[in-house]
Amino acid sequence: MEHLKGRIIYKGTVEGEALTTSMPISFYGGVDPNTGIVLEKGHELEGMSIKDKILVFPQGKGSTVGSYTLYRMKKNNTAPLGMINKETETIVAVGAIISEIPFIDKVDITKIKTGNKVTIENENLKLF
Hints:
The chain has 128 residues and is α/β, with parallel strands linked by helices. 16% of the residues lie in helices and 28% in strands.
C-alpha cells in the first residue's frame, strides 16, 4: 500500500478502481454524459467508460460547459466516483464541486495505474 497526499478540491471519502490517462480530458464533447464513455477521437481512453471509476488525469481542457457536463453525468449516474489531477483548472474544479464528486489535485499521477484500487479520504490517497 502506498500513501500520497494532495490538495482537496472537493472533500469526501470514496474507494474504487483507478482509470488513468496522461492526456487532458474535455468533458464537453469529449465524454458522453448519458453513458460516461470517452468519445474524443485519439484519446487514450476513447471508447472506455469513466462511470464508477476513480478518474486520474493531468487536468481538464475545453469549454466551461464541461462543468455542467460533469453535473449532468452525476444526475445520470454516469460520473466518476472520484477524480485525481496533477494540477486542476477551473472547469473541472467547478464541475466536481457542484456535482459533489470527491476530488484532489497536486498528486504525482504517474504513481497511479489503471486497475489500482484507490481510496480518496479528503487530502489523503491510498493505493492498493
